[in-house]
């Protein structure tokens, strides 16, 4: 009988996607450091109440170009790890869909904060593609309303002021409890409840590895802290894990 293969949980934050051209928010060069008022664009109250906030948000989505971003070496390394036969689950705070585009199976990705690849109506809940909404912005609609009922369109992401989906969090906590290795990549580990996942993993006996350019509250609890750029460090870590499989 073959030995049980260790379960690897990888929690990813904005830092893994910066090399794909998607800016982070909290880092030294993050969007909120440069423009603190930008946080209104991802906070549910101001977003629903203020058409000007929505217009700024649509311009940001258009200019950031997240839908056109391509997976980078970090995303591709995690897809390689999964293909290598090790049990892996990705718990991502990102909403860009780049793990799936890199070839990581969608059923093994938990999107803790939702997805920016779709929009929904705040009134009637009808969903449609973000690409279609951005085409309307490019055509001159600064704040495109829902075509079904005229309500406010919003991305299918969890905004500040909203709770995370309890079913998604329950599944993420189950992975954290079951994993043998928890790898936190490109995340400040400051946004709860997602930031509690590493502690849950450690308390249930998992090893903790942190790959992040800046210090995190969990560095002292980690078995290994890697400060190298993610697109370099993550492929190296994956090769180590595959060599030890």
UniProtKB/TrEMBL annotation:
InterPro entries: DHS-like_NAD/FAD-binding_dom (IPR029035), NAD-dep_sirtuin_deacylases (IPR050134), Sirtuin (IPR003000), Sirtuin_cat_small_dom_sf (IPR026591), Ssirtuin_cat_dom (IPR026590). The active site is at residue 113. Gene3D superfamilies: SIR2/SIRT2 'Small Domain (3.30.1600.10), TPP-binding domain (3.40.50.1220). Its EC number is 2.3.1.286. The keyword Plastid does not apply. GO terms for molecular function: histone deacetylase activity, NAD-dependent; metal ion binding; NAD+ binding. It comes from the Bacteria. Zn(2+) binds at residues 121, 124, 146, 149. Keywords: Acyltransferase, Metal-binding, NAD, Transferase, Zinc. Residues 1-244 form the Deacetylase sirtuin-type domain. SUPFAM superfamilies: DHS-like NAD/FAD-binding domain. This is protein acetyllysine N-acetyltransferase.
